[in-house]
Write a structure and sequence with these properties.
With about 270 residues, this protein is of the alpha/beta class. The chain has 8 helices and 12 strands. Helix content is about 30%, strand content about 20%.
Length: about 270
């Protein structure tokens, strides 16, 4: 049986009788394998996660009322739990940590990420079948999650993601530059099983490019929106390239993409 750490923290203003809202899933690797990422210092990463968690907890107008924090490195989540207890908030927080980095670093980010999500959802006690889960990289702050939620069409949806299909943009690939942005997507719990569960195990070379194909294939069975109507605005430091999303180049890129997303929604930039 898998060994894991688990804690549930109920905010002092959390009301279990209130109609349920969405769930925020924060993925984490507190102690990444050596040379796996550029931002590898444990204390720096921990500070990133704490800053992001406190940001999400303090958002009293958020579309989510539950937060699932999942670490795949058995990195010691005592500080995470302490932050959830000391920060005034109105949410239910579940914290899970397990040892999930027993695969080669060469497998890549998507492999580890969806392996983490599979195990986290299987171990969670606060996520249920029809819940809409907003997944985001746990070190980053998604500044406009409420605006993203409000911008979605009124029709029921099972999966909302950002698929990109423009040469050279994002990955510098000229050919077959079709990939899914793994930093942010929203999916119903049941739909996740249909679209993604176990894909990291069964697909050779599983990566963000494979996720593009899987997400489009999911339209056979699910209600899929392959592009957010608004540009997700992220704040924090990229783990791979150490780029500051809040610096002016990042803000400029986000603004340009946001404008094109509205003016030319068919351009998957």
């Amino acid at each position: 049986m898998m060994q894991f750490e688990h804690a549930i923290v109920s905010g002092e203003r959390f009301d279990p009788a209130r109609p349920k809202r969405d769930i925020l899933l924060l993925t984490a690797t507190l102690k990444p394998p050596a040379a796996a990422v550029a931002r590898s210092d444990h204390q720096e990463r921990l500070n990133d996660y704490l800053r992001a968690l406190e940001f999400y907890l303090r958002d009293l107008d958020a579309p989510y009322d539950r937060i699932l924090f999942v670490d795949n490195s058995m990195g010691g989540v005592g500080s995470i739990e302490a932050a959830a207890r000391r920060t005034p908030h109105d949410k239910l927080v579940e914290i899970i940590s397990f040892a999930g980095n027993d695969h080669p670093v060469t497998r890549g980010k998507a492999y580890g990420e969806f392996k983490l999500i599979d195990h986290g959802l299987a171990l969670s006690s606060i996520v249920h079948g029809s819940d809409m889960i907003w997944k985001t990289t746990g070190r980053l702050r998604l500044l406009n999650i409420r605006q993203l939620r409000l911008a979605l069409p009124d029709r029921p949806l099972d999966l909302v993601c950002d698929l990109h299909n423009v040469p050279l943009v994002g990955t510098d690939r000229l050919h077959r530059n079709r990939y899914m942005d793994l930093r942010v997507f929203a999916v119903r719990r049941d739909a996740y099983d249909v679209a993604y569960r176990g894909a990291w195990e069964r697909i050779e070379g599983f990566d963000a490019f494979a996720m593009y194909d899987l997400s489009l294939q999911a339209r056979r069975h699910l209600r899929v929106l392959p592009r957010f109507p608004r540009e997700p605005r992220l704040q924090g430091i990229s783990g791979r390239h150490l780029r500051d999303y809040g610096a002016w180049p990042g803000r400029m890129k986000s603004a340009v993409r946001g404008g094109l997303r509205r003016a030319l929604p068919y351009l998957w930039l």
